[in-house]
Design brief:
CATH superfamily of one domain: Ras guanine-nucleotide exchange factors catalytic domain
Helix content: 40-55%
Strand content: 5-15%
CATH class of one domain: Mainly Alpha
CATH topology of one domain: Son of Sevenless (SoS) protein, Chain S, domain 2
Largest sheet: 5 strands, antiparallel
Keywords: Guanine-nucleotide releasing factor
CATH architecture of one domain: Orthogonal Bundle
Structural class: alpha+beta
GO molecular function: guanyl-nucleotide exchange factor activity
Organism: Poecile atricapillus (Black-capped chickadee)
Radius of gyration: 29 Å
Strand order of the largest sheet: 1-2-3-5-4
Distance between the termini: 86 Å
Protein name: RGL1 protein
Length: about 725
């Protein structure tokens, strides 16, 4: 006989049980079977056999995937999911349950209620009247525990008592004595007890406590920095990024967890994510310090340092390290570096083209589509897929890439973690934690797992890296003293003022301005006369006072929250005529907003980017076609777009908390008191103080829309500007 299968799926609706709701899908398999062995001689092959010589049989099976339930039902489903053909359920639950339960609560339910082989006769899982039923339950419990230890063993790291691990060990001794599982748990307990407590930020810390006694932080010596080869710097930055990214605990990235980090009691929350942010900021500040830290540098020397960092960024691209790549690009686009017009004029054309191509990777067009597609394309590829529109750069890239291939070692991929944090915050804001009846919304967890799974895939790919630490560079990197925002801006002004007296003639300056303008803007962009240029534009402008109130971006940030922010600019040399306003950073819609300084204070409006706090505008990840199909997912509300009666807005607190945005979901039913109360809760303030505040929408730098007390926010807001609001205490 020969067989062929054709599978179709049909939505079977929902099944409701006490404490749970299930999505049901009917899987219909058509089996086409040849009537006899000689059928192939009658004009057909495989599934192309003549109809009269085949027998069609249909087999229908039901797939149940839990949609919402009580904690008890969700834990019970760990034991029954395979029987319901929901094969990914255990992985999804283990990756996301920390958003709604503790390890102890889950373990107690699993072992005491469902796993007690002597007294579990409630009928929740199985009827234990027979030995077969007991063996089935024992196997199911062992399977769940094995998956838990494989995927999330750190859930049991609870020094110094390790209560959950001891409870598990006691259960195994009583119910599965002398099993491999028991030995494994014993070894894990010994491992935890013997391990020294390591600082999660490890080598990447830039605090003076990591230095040799008596050694102080210092501003980089340009000659020492220049002595490091470009590819060595990129490899060492990648080494540090890889070590930190591999340590990231995926559930730390969940929006419901990461969004709570600002509370005083949560200062140690999500340490693995904070460590990657600290490293990102350290790289960004290192770039700025090496460029501006030495006052005596000549224009050409400073330009050479910029060129070196662009080459290092390109090496990071070859190594598929998108984290340090973005950190370097962000630093070069910061206000203090971006405004060095004369210095940028001395950067060679080839390097500027390279810089432009690298910057384009992180374009905010279509919800960062370029960087997302590139990341997924290279997630599992052995080497970087390089392409350059400039022939000379293409030759250099292919040559460097060939050297990597000749080593015979595959490369991993280090992502920019902010993209995933942003997506998870989006999901957490847009989807409810609980549905009707107080049931835990597990559909939300399935959506979150799609993002978590990508993080895990990339973490796995990082095992392919074979990098050796260079102690000389790491020591140099650690001891760098980072400039404050005020220091870097002051040094930038001094450097540009000195450049104004250089030997370049007005004619050559005009030529260079035209060249750099053409590179960044394109040949078809109309450049208005000098007097029409916005103050933020470096093209044809001058240094000095005219830039003090510029609305350009900066990667400097609030130093009281150095562990909480990734930094990135609002605008970049790609678009120097772009005029930004408070909250206008649509590309990085985040809970961190724009901070304005008074004119003449030596500081411009800066964009503080916290990837975990905000929402990329545009689409979010969609459910992939796994083993459990589902109906089309309804489009979720997004920032800056009203859709199907809902949208997401950003609300900041006036005054002390003006730099912190919180993302809030509103519907066409919400009025001012509802939104105000939610905003106060998000900002960890007393929600009963609704009457003391007024809600205003920021229309422009000098215009606001003030809402009446009982106004409908959804219909009353201006939908043609950014959905940025301020909660202000009434006079």
């Amino acid at each position: 006989f020969s067989f062929s299968w054709q599978t179709t799926f049909q939505d079977g609706g929902e099944e409701v049980e006490d404490g749970a709701v299930y999505n049901v899908t009917l899987k219909k398999v058509q089996i086409q079977q040849a009537a006899n062995k000689g059928a192939r001689w009658l004009g057909g092959e495989g599934d192309q056999l003549p109809p009269e010589h085949t027998v069609r049989q249909y087999e229908t099976s039901k797939i149940r995937a839990i949609k919402a339930g009580t904690l008890e039902k969700l834990v019970e489903n760990l034991l029954t999911a395979f029987g319901d053909a929901d094969f990914s359920y255990i992985s999804i639950f283990l990756a996301t349950y920390r958003a709604f339960a503790s390890p102890r609560a889950v373990l107690e339910l699993l072992l005491d209620r469902f796993g007690n082989l002597e007294t579990s006769s409630h009928g929740e899982v199985a009827n234990l009247n027979s030995l077969d039923s007991e063996m089935v339950l024992r196997a199911e419990i062992a399977s769940v525990l094995r998956a838990w230890l494989d995927q999330c063993s750190d859930d049991f790291r609870e020094p110094p008592d390790y209560l959950c691990l001891l409870k598990l060990l006691d259960y195994l001794k009583n119910n599965m004595p002398n099993s491999d599982m028991e030995s494994r748990v014993q070894n894990l307990l010994k491992q935890f007890q013997n391990q020294e407590v390591e600082a999660v930020d490890g080598f990447c810390s830039t605090s003076s406590s990591d230095l040799v006694d008596g050694e102080e932080l210092e501003i980089s010596n340009p000659e020492e920095f220049s002595s490091f080869q470009d590819h060595i710097v990129a490899e060492q930055l990648t080494y540090m990024d890889v070590m930190l990214f591999r340590r990231v605990v995926p559930y730390h990235c969940l929006g419901s967890i990461w969004s709570q980090r600002d509370k005083k009691e949560n200062k140690n929350l999500a340490p693995t994510v904070r460590a990657t942010i600290t490293q990102f900021n350290a790289v960004t500040k290192c770039v700025i310090s090496t460029i501006l830290g030495t006052r005596e540098l000549k224009i050409q020397q400073r330009a050479k340092i910029i060129e070196k960092w662009i080459k290092i960024a390109h090496e990071c691209r070859i190594l598929k390290n998108f984290s340090s790549l973005r950190a370097i690009i962000s630093a070069l686009q910061s206000n203090s570096i971006y405004r060095l017009k004369t210095t940028w004029m001395c950067v060679s054309k080839d390097i500027l083209l390279m810089y432009e191509e690298l910057s384009e990777i992180f374009s905010d067009h279509d919800n960062y589509l370029t960087s997302r597609e590139l990341l997924m394309k290279e997630a599992t590829s052995k080497f970087a897929n390089l392409d350059s529109s400039e022939k000379e750069n293409q030759k250099k890239s292919q040559k460097r890439l060939q050297l990597q291939k000749n080593k015979g070692v595959m490369q991993g991929t280090v992502p920019y973690l902010g993209t995933f944090l942003t997506d998870l915050i989006m999901l957490d804001t847009a989807l409810q934690d609980y549905v009707e009846g107080g049931l835990i919304n597990f559909e939300k967890r399935r959506r979150e797992f799609e993002v978590i799974a990508q993080i895990k895939l990339l973490q796995s790919s990082c095992n392919s890296y074979c990098l050796i630490p260079d102690e000389k560079f790491i020591h140099w990197f650690r001891r760098q003293r980072h400039l404050t925002e005020e220091e870097s801006y002051k040094l930038s002004r001094e450097a540009e003022a000195a450049a104004d007296t250089n030997i370049l003639s007005p004619k050559s300056q005009k030529s260079m301005v035209k060249r750099i303008s053409t590179l960044f803007l394109g040949t078809d962009v109309f450049t208005p006369p000098k007097e029409q240029l916005p103050k933020s534009s470096p093209v044809g402008g001058s240094s000095g006072e005219s830039t003090d109130s510029a609305s350009v971006s900066s990667c400097e940030f609030n130093h009281s929250e150095t562990e909480d922010v990734f930094v990135t600019p609002v605008s970049s040399p790609e678009d120097p005529l772009k005029k930004s306003s408070v909250g206008s950073d649509k590309g990085y819609d985040s809970d961190k907003g724009s901070v304005s300084s008074d004119k003449g204070s030596g500081s411009s409006k800066v964009s503080i980017f916290d990837p975990g706090s905000g929402l990329d505008s545009g689409s979010i990840p969609t459910r992939d076609s796994g083993s459990v199909p589902s109906s089309a997912t309804k489009a979720l509300p997004v920032y800056n777009r009203q859709s199907e009666g809902s949208c997401i807005i950003r609300v900041s607190m006036d005054g002390l908390h003006a730099s912190v945005y919180k993302s809030i979901l509103i519907t066409n039913q919400d009025r001012i008191p509802d939104v105000t109360q939610r905003a106060l809760l998000k900002h960890n303030l007393e929600p009963d103080a609704v009457e003391d505040y007024e809600l205003v929408q920021v229309i422009s730098e000098d215009k606001e829309l003030v809402f009446p007390r009982d106004a409908n926010v959804f219909y009353g807001m201006n939908s043609h500007v950014n959905f940025d609001f301020i909660l202000r205490k009434k006079a």
